[in-house]
Specification:
heterodimer, A: 358 residues, alpha/beta, 6-stranded parallel sheet, 6-stranded mixed sheet, 11 helices, 12 strands, globular, B: 363 residues, mainly alpha, ABC transporter involved in vitamin B12 uptake, BtuC, two-stranded antiparallel sheet
Chain lengths: 358, 363
Amino acid sequence: MRKSLLAMAVGLLLAGGVGAASAADKLKVGFVYLGPIGDLGWTYQHDQGRQALVKELGDKIETTYLENVPEGPDSERAIEQLVRAGNKLIFTTSFGYMDPTLKVAKKYPNVHFEHATGYKRNPNMSTYSAKWYQGRYIQGLIAAKMSKSGVLGYIGSFPIPEVVSGINATILAAQTINPNIKVKIIWANTWFDPGKEADAAKALIDQGADVIMQHTDSPAPMQIASERGKLAFGQDSEMIKFGPKTQLTSILDTWGPYYIERVKAELAGTWKSEDTWGGLDSHMFAMAPYTNMPDDVKKMAEDAQAAITAGKLHPFKCPIVGQDGKPIECKGGDHLDDGQILGMNFYVKGIDDKLPGK
Amino acid sequence: MQLVLEKRAERSNTIALVSPLIAIGLTIVTMVVLFAILGKNPLLALHAYFIAPLTDGYSLQEIAVKATPLVMIAIGLSLCYLANAWNIGAEGQFLIGAVAGSWIAVKTQGTDAGAWVLPAMLVLAAAAGALYALIPAICKVRFGASEILTSLMLVYVADLFLDYLVRGPWRDPHGFNFPTTAEFDPVATVPLLIEGGRLHLGSIIALLVVAAAAILLGRTIKGFEIRVVGAAPRAARFGGFNANQLIVLTFAISGALAGLAGIIEVSGPVGHLQPGISPGYGFTAIIVAFLGRLNPLGILIASLFLALTFIGGEQAQIAMKIPLDVTKVFQGILLFYVLACDSLILYRFKLVFSNRQVSRGAG
């Protein structure tokens, strides 16, 4: 018995060795994930993108991922481990990996890095992100139409420009429908914590909000809104199964096409450091079907989506007035320019709250 | 009929020494079964976990980097536990040390402050950690408050205080509102030992701490007092040892070491202050202290071993596509076997055939 076990083990070892050798000439692509791949939100969507990549180019590449990598000192090691395992193109998929990615990138100039949602670049380090504020604008229109109380509930993660611009886009849109719309904001100070997110949703509903919007990643707020018979928007992924009668729409992160494009460039030897910031026209994200709303609201949402995609409607169209009543300088002609949106650090007029740290 | 745990009359010293090895052996056997069930090659998996990280300089460095804070905190905790003082709040002392040291780094940022910055940061961090640990210690000796509860609750206070600072006054003005300070200046950074690597001066400091603790416990009267107060409180009282004084002393030392570990982590591998600087080092160190049997050398080995499981776990994820959860299961199984083996050294199973209630306090 013992001998046969040993023989089996040796056999397995040899089989493993052969498998490893045949994979050696494929391009190795690595991914670093913030959450578990089963978070049903942010990390889940990145992994869906990776799977789309494997489906498309699986015969030429081999992918590896590290999940649940905290945004502290461990992330630098995780990234470097992927480099040392022979990965030549590495996607680091959270803002907090910015400095660690840059450190490793400087150390390994022959490896290419792609950092999601950051702003630091290097000749071998690109950044990529999406103009989610466009989707938020559409959500703002729907929310204002659907809210009976005129109070929206917004669960923020961190007061970084990406989140702040989402809040502003929502309110600017809602004000075109209902000039007196109110928004209550709770900062969860986390990207993924179902317990905290659920508590925030409960608190917002108790304060009179009847449409819940979230910039955190778990489906917990959707479930709470569903229990209380309110409406809500999903985040990152399709969340309709958590609120079949609750979800109005959801911003779907669709990373697959981008990952395929970048890996193709790497395979062709044409990869170079870029800053990609894609909108609805670039398929970096999509809107989930418009559900649980009357046909006229649905039509309005679809029209707005078409106008934004065609470049006819800009969510940050001037004039935009800040909380202090003074107009914001208009650097992009008839709308705010990308730099102003990427560094957005103010609330627009009509938000009855104080931006943390201001 | 009942199955009871009965204290053994005598314990074998040899068994006590090999018990951790038996535990590791049993863990490996269990993992082989688990890998086989998962359809992974057990030999390759074990190789990825235990051998691969030991075969190249880079991984060895990473193991040392990961083990450094664990060693320093666990050494301090072991002194407390030997003296029967239950400091559970090393995580908080770690964070307060990091905050106090970072204060100097943040305030001197961009100025041409000299080489005094880093030493001052280390000293201030140790002092702050010690003071923070003295709160539960003094509450204990003065008012009889449970140090387990007070030290644990102060962890959350420290955590939220750090959070407030990096979101408010210390936030990097060019950091797009993200909760972090700016990167520390080079004079506020722990120097690297190997160019291009991550091994830093902190690992040397950790080794010095191990040596100092070994001397303290093995060669000095104070060390003897600590051990006697913990092992035989009555004998210690007859010997005129002041148990309260030792609680205060061991808490202060362990707080200072945790604080020092905090600032070394922040000014070394991290490079700036941010929330989440500790993935629970203060709590993992409690496990390390007991795995190392509250012995300085044992703690050094235990922390290196635990660090190995982290690094090996990542390599197994990369090389074998083994999920991270398996690494966590692996660490849990290891602890289970260590505790089980320890229990069976001190106790044995006995079948009791009468219906008489076995009183618990009698033995």
